[in-house]
Every structure is written in structure tokens, then in C-alpha cells.
Amino acid sequence: MDVLRPFRTLLSIKHDVARSWQAKGKHLVGWSCAYTPEELIYAANSIPIMVSGSLEPSKHADVYLPINTCSFVRSCFDSALKGDYEYLDGLVISNSCDNRNKIFDLWKHHVKIPYVHFINTPHTRTEGTHNFFYDEIFRFKTSLQVTFGEKLSDTTLKNAIRIFNENRLLLKKVYDLRMKDPPLISGAEALEIVLSSMVTSKEEHNVLLKRLLAGASNRADPPKGGVRLLVSGSVVDNSKPIRIIEAIGGSVVADDLCTGSKYFWDLVSSHGDPLRAIAKRYLDKVSSSFMLEPGTNFSHTIEMAERFDVEAVIVFALKFCDTHMFDAPQLVKEFEARDLPVLYLEWEHSLSGSAQLKTRIEAFLEMVKGVG
Predict the structure, then answer these.
(1) What pTM does this model have?
(2) Secondary structure letter of residue 316 according to DSSP
(3) β-pairing, 27-31 with 90-94?
């Protein structure tokens, strides 16, 4: 499908895309957590770029990090040490998990980036933490203004909110195409579409999304059907794990990933103080596993399973991803209580054990088909 090609291209040449925006006078600010308020970066005449790794062994980062470090964080740091992100004008890191928290110091001391900022993201939602997070966002705004010499006025913030909200609504429409049986967009394609929104201008991405949505219903090469699956778990910044699933009879029609639905599901209010609206959206958005939300941690995941009529669930947890590994047993019970088969898998970001993963997924899909 030709309208899908631009999204894959953006990902395959993401560093060149970033440099092209720099050549047009844009600042480039990397971020590592979906709780980073990208609208502020955008309002500062900058392009927010998600920092991701590769599936190659992290030989450079292994010099600095123990083996029991999250392999995603290690892979991102490895890419930075190799110079993949040497073009960044800045980097924003959050304390969303211990690994990201501690990696802040390593980036600051071993990677030559002119501007590095830390956002102290609360792990609860109370009146006090909302006020605290607003102060953190205000501090971030001030820091961006001082560093880049760009005034973040209410007008520029509201414009950024409008552009980002449009992107979120368009991505929801793309996800709606997966409700069909078989879906009009595969799980791997959907992930690539969302990931590509994190490496370029949202305005450019909105144009591509509108073009895709206009032609999707007439697609001549729709994805094959299969066992309708929801994929849950740790960050997935590469479509290869999803492609493995879909190559052996699965059809990933839904997810709760921070690089998937959790990234765009909630809008920023267009009313009132734009800075406070941004702070509220990011703290109140669909929660990640590090948030302390007793009783509601899995509400979005369960809603996605019901909304997209899934037949089974695969939970991907990166090895040493403590937050998701603590959540996983309870999440499995939640789905088992709803008579949905669940497969729990631990995996390395390098996909070094992909053959074993494939074998376990194949057996799981056969079991689901047999039950059905």
C-alpha cells in the first residue's frame, strides 16, 4: 500500500529526517518517556525526537552498565555513544522508572549534548502532585526559553496543542481501522505509523495520516486475518516483534504500549491556561506501569481488549523492566478472569532469543485456535 511507505521511510532514515529539520532552523530535542510534554518543545521552535535504540548488541553501553539494566535503556545509550544522536540540541529525561532516572547522569557526562533537562514526574495523582507537576512544567518552559531564546507564549502553546491533538485524533482513526475482521491495518503497520510520528514534525505527519485514511478503505493488499490479539507490556520501539507474531498466524489488532495507544489516547484541553492544561493531560493520561493507581492500572488495557474484540493477549516484558514485571502477574489474572488466554514473555531488546519467542508464540496461537 503506497500510502504506508512514507511512514516506513521516516523510520528507516529518521536521523536524516531530523537533520533536515535542523537545516530548516528547527532545534532538535530528544525525549525518552511519553510523559514528556512535547507541546512545549514544539512551541519552542523545536522538533521533539523520541530517542530509541537498535536491535544490535549494545557493546558500547555495556562498558558503563551492568547486565541487569533494562535492555531498552541500554540500547538507547549505546546509540548515543556511537554518535547516532550527535545532532541533538537537547535531551529531556524523566524519572518514570529507575533505569531512566539513573541514565540521566550517564547521558549528561558521556554524551556531548548542549542541553539536558530532567523532569521529576510524580507517580501519583493528587491535588498536591498536580500542583507539583505544574511547577515542573513551568520550570521546563523557562528552561527552554532561556536555552533556545524562544518565547513560549499562550498563543504558541495553544497552536502546539491544536496540532498535537489533531495528530492524536487521526491516530485514533487509524486504530479504528483495526476493528474490522480482518483489519485494514496490521499491528506492525500501526506501530510503525505511531513511531514515525515521534521522529518528525506533527504537522507533516498529519498530512500523511489524512492521505492514509483517505485511501485505506480501498486497500488492494489488506493484511491477512488471524487470531485477534492485544499486545501489552514494555516499550516496543521496533515493529519486528509484532511482525514475528503476525507472520505465524496472529493478528495484532490492539495494544496498550507507551509507543502505541498510550502515547496518543488522551487529548489536551483547549480551554483555559494552556500550560496547566498540558500539565494536567500528561499527569492524568492513560497511566504507565510506574504510576501508583490501585484498581485502575489496567482499565485502558481491558477497555482495548473489549473494544477491539480480541481473542487472546500477549504480554511482552523486557528483561529487568521492573515496573512491567511487577504488573504482569496481576494483569494476567485480570484477563484470565475474563476467559481470555494470556501468554507472558520476557524478551531482550536485541531479540537475541527470537527463535524461542517464535516457538512459544506458535504454540500459544495453536492452543487458542484449538479452544476456539
Answers:
(1) 0.96
(2) E
(3) parallel
